[in-house]
Amino acid sequence: MNDEGRIRLRPMSAADLAHVNVIEQRSFHTPWPEKAFAEALSHNQSALCWVAEWVEENQPPKVVADAVVWLILDEAHIGTLAVHPDYRARSIARKLLAKVLLEAIRFGATHALLEVRAGNLIAHHLYRKFGFDVVGIRKGYYQESGEDALLMTLNPLVTEKLADLLVSR
Question: Is 115 assigned a catalytic role?
Answer without folding.
Answer: yes
